[in-house]
Request: fold
Amino acid sequence: MAADSKGLLIAMLMISTWTAYAAKYRVIPKSTAVLLGGTITMKCAYDELTPADTVVWLGPPNFKLIATGKAVNPRFQRYAITGDHSKGEFNLAIREARLRDEGNYKCSTFGVDEAEGLAELTVVEPVPAPPDIDGGDGPVIHGHSILLSCVSYGGHPLPRLEWYNGTRLVQSIRPSEQWQMEDMVAKLSIRRVSRWENGVNYTCKADQGFPDLVKPVASSRVLDIQYPPEVFIPRPSIFVKEGDLANLTCLVDGNPTSTVTWRKLDHHHSLAGAERGNHLILHKVSRYDAGVYQCTADNGIPPVDVGTVTLKVRYPPWIDPSMKQTITVQYDNDGFSLDCLAEGNPKPHIRWRRKNTNLYWDNPLRFNRVDYGVEGTYECVATNEGFPEVSKETKIDVIGLPHLLGQDLAEVLTVQSGGTARLGCRIVADPLPGRISWIWRSKQGIENTLHDGLNGISINDKITEQEMSSALTVKHVDIGRAGTYICQASNIFGPVKRNIQLEVEESRTSLFIIIIATTASALALMATMAFGCVLKKRRVTRKQRKPTAVHGVSASRPMPPVPKYIHATSTIDSGVEDLELHELDRALKPHPPSRGRDDKEWKSVGLAYSGLVHSTSLPPYSTVERQLPDGEDNIRHLTTFREDGPTVPATPSL
Reply:
């Protein structure tokens, strides 16, 4: 011991002596660690060393002199000075490191700062086993607390203990210098554990701080936290097509594992499906399987939890079969409607259409007023997405009073004389009338029933399922055919009729002939009157000359006007126009007197035929009369025609 102190004193004196010759560190010793039993080299090198300079190594305990130059103290058999000394390298090599080798080392020479060459060597003895964890090794009810203890045995230096929740550091404990125990303990308290701590990995890691030499060791504890079940429904609503498979799922979070049971709400019978844990399997789903299903989870830790799944079954439209195939409605009914009931999923769109048409109406089918045009077959059509449409037929049968078609046509028909008039009458009814009858009313109000084949009249009747028609044809129309024609029919609900007035116009040719005849008659009358005046004047003159009177001739009535058939003749004797009158075709005609009777004077012209002139066989003109038929009938739903002239329609033609 005294020798070591003497050497150290000499070395220090030498360093003090050679301070002026300052060598410089090229490599300064650094603190390092070595694994127990391993080899370590602590490097030290100088620049500007002289042959007189001496490099010394000092070490534990208490900076003992280990080596001077290349010479090593014999007490340090496992130590050696290595390196190229000519280059100023004086490295300290230690083999088979032991715990006593741990401490502070210094490489120094004359003229260098003593503090610069100081380095610490740590000898590491690995922890023999991972730490032990105590606590939390059994189930813990949620809401309770847990105390976890971590104990690390042995190792040098003592490790640092760290608690991790997963990968998150929650606690770290380092050994203090006053720690005298060979074991390291770290405790972790967890208060009021919840379901979120279940399955969490709490890890205790022992780290000696030299990862290049020895890896940290750790132990873990997975917490078993028991908590009541919680139900989670991934698909609260499920749509399934009828006939397909349905899988109802009820996910449960709970510890321990829960028992899941299924039931259908508002359904007291056993389920048709198969329960497989958290799943309810329904094979070949029908529309009657639709509804709300409830799953119940129970693991023995109250409370239990429930969840619901709504099963919606998609199926094609279905029309209520109770809808009648035939519905009878009375004619002229107001506010009639027909409702169609249909089901389906999705909810079907319900419309109405007339059969064999593309004309649609909304449901319910409404009619503001029912007529015979409403009658027919209607289809209730129901459609929804993903399925073909379905339909059901209903026939609307309209019954009631007969109805005449074509009420908007003219009620007056004008036909030229000699033409043909055609009248039509169409009736719809249910039930159909027995027949359609025709009546003609004259202008005097006299009514006659018309029959087929009577006086140039023809009647043609036709009957269909719900319609009856009658066509009346009048040929060679004259003024006597004018009047009112009545078409009428009736059934159990009552009668119906329509009048149409037929007017007859004279043709232009006939009118022209009448005008000529009238003019000629007027001219003849004027000539006759002039001739009568002349004749009377002559008679007066004769009486003045010869006052002999003709007796026994008298006229019972005035002479009729001279017709147009008077002819003038000249006599050879006097040159005076001698005329006689005689009867020709019931008309008076001038005739010359006979030349063979000398007892008659020419003055007696016109008196020789007193039997004709004064005959009472001729009726006065006022007694000749003709009664002409008249009258006109406004017939509903008539069509009128005329030939040889324009036609005026009254109703649709049949």
